[in-house]
Fold this protein.
Amino acid sequence: MRLCLWHKIEINFYFTYMNILKERLRGLNLGGWFSQVDCIEEKDPQGFPGFYKHAEIFITELDLQRIKNWNFNHVRLPVDYFNFFKGKNLEEDKIAFELLDKAVEKILNAGLALIIDLHKCPGHDFHQGTLGSAQPFFTDPKYRNDAKKVWSVLAERYGCKPNVLLEILNEPVAPNAEVWNSVKDEFFWHIRKAAPKAPIVVGSNLWNNPAQFKDLTPLEDDNVLYSFHSYQPVIFTHQNAAWIPEPYFHQDRSWPGMYAPPQNEGDIVITLPIEDGRWNKTRLRQTMENALEFRAKYNVPVACNEFGVYVQVERQSQLNWLRDFTSLLREADVGFSYWNYKNLDFGIISIGESLHQNLPQYNNADRIDGELVGMLL
C-alpha cells in the first residue's frame, strides 16, 4: 500500500476539503480524455493518434486555464479502468498512469478542484445497462474484488492530494435500491481506508437518477458529496442520438412540450425511463425534489454531476431546457458539473466531430458555444 505523504499538513488538508463541500460547485466534465476514448476514435478514426498521444493532447493547460478564467471552480475527470489496468491480473499500465498523474497536476495547478470519477469499472458499464444488460458487478464478487483493486490504486495515488474528490462509480445500474445501498457502503469504506480525509462522491441508483434518493441511505461520515444526474426527460435531451436505437427516441421534440407515449410500450427494449406527458420547468423542478429532500433531511451537500442536451437538438429548444435547468440549480443552491467540456455530442467545444461541423453555435475560430458558457455561469 502506498503511504500518504501529506500527513504533515493533515489539519490544513481537512479544512481545505470542508471548504470545498461548503462552496457551491460549478464545473465541467472532461469526458473523452481518459474515458469513452473509443467514441472519440470512432468520430475520427484516421486522425486518432492512439491512446497515449491522445491523452497528452486532448486537454491542455490552455483548456484548463480557459475553464478557470470562465470562473468554474472544478472539473470532473471520468476514467475508464481498462485504460490503466491490463489483463486478468489488472497490471498497472505505467505510461497511462504517468499521463494521468500529469493530468491531475495540471488541473490542480490551474487552481481547479478535481473529482476523479470511476466511469467504468470491472463488471459495470452504464451504457450497456441502458440496453437491458445485467451488470455482473452486482452479482459476482469477483468483479467487485477487481474494482476494489482499481480503487486501492486510485485512492492511494490521488486521495491524499488536497482538492481531489473520489467518486465511487458513475451511473450505477443495480437491480434495486437495497443492492446499491449495500454495494456503495462496501466501496465507500474500502476507499475511506486508503483515503481517510478525501471527500467521497456517492451517487443514486439507476444512472444517478434523482428520484432514487428516496431509497438512498446516507453514510455515517461527514465528508461525503451526494450526486445525481439530470437528462430528464431522456426522450427530449437524447432525441435522435445515434447510440439509442429505439425509434421512439428518434422523434423531434420541442421544449417545453407535450410528448405522446409510445404506440406500443411493449416494443421498447431499452431500459431508460419513458417519461411522456407535458414537460416544462415546473415538472423539471419536480424531478429534483427527492434529492433536495434528502439534502434537507440529513443536512448533507448534494450536487448534479452531469446534465446536458444532445447538440443536434433544435437550438432554441436546447437553450430553453438548459436555461430552465440551470435556473433551477441556482434557485436550489445546487452545485453542478456540466456534461461535457469537449466533444462527445454534448460539448461546449466540438472539434473533429464531422456530424456537428456545421452547427451554428460552433461557427467561430475556437468552436466554442459561448452562449452555453454564459448560461452556465
Observations:
- The longest helix spans residues 141-158.
- The mean pLDDT is 92.
- The chain has one domain: 7-376.
- The radius of gyration is 20 Å.
